[in-house]
Amino acid sequence: MRPTRSGVTGSLVYAALGVIWILGTRPPGSGWLLFAWVVAVAIAGAFIPGEANQVSLARAYLAAPAVAYSVSGQLGLLAVVVAVAGLTDLVDGTIARRFERPSNLGGALDPVVDGIFLGSTTLGLSLGGAFPLWLAMVVIARYLLPALGGGLLIVSGRRPELHHTLSGQVSTTLILILVGGVALFRGLNQDPDGYLTAAEVVIPVATVVTFGHLAWASRRRVGGPQPG
Fold first, then answer.
1. Element spanning 23, H or E
2. Which of 97, 188, 191, 213 is most buried (CB neighbours < 10 A)?
3. Is the pTM of this model over 0.85?
4. Assign residue 157 a region: left if phi > 0, alpha if psi is -120 to 50, beta otherwise?
């Protein structure tokens, strides 16, 4: 693989924004670790083509402020980060459909960056005492297990078609809303118990439904080993 024009451009823009954020706001935590994360994502992003995929990558970059603000308890700022991440989740699909042709790469990248962002956010919230640890593990499993399953299929010589599913999109939207709501209510010093109760019910149910839908869809889409 070689660096792409859109990838290099996106990486330079995101890296510059990351440096401005770190130097300008002095976020909690280690500035060097946050900078290292931004650089690592920028290096990987330089090889990823397509404007829509670069928009998706924003959620990987946003994992840095999400962790910084969730662990430190600055949950008002975290709610803003979650809202921006949700906006990118809406915009990337629109760009792909209008200006580009949806691809296997985009279908694979979207849930990966969703998992990075939401997994790090909920784990940070749980470390800060604002979110149940078991529920953070459910969120991580929601994205990690399908990624591992897809990887095993590829290693075994199969070529799964990587597309968004309705259940996957709905579950990600619900998780973003519920996690953002918990952060916002706590950030405003309001009682988040209603949102937490809803999250403890909705997120596991949505995860199970997503797994079931993916298993059903995989039976139809996964091709056999290719000759040669």
1. helix 5-25
2. 213
3. yes
4. left
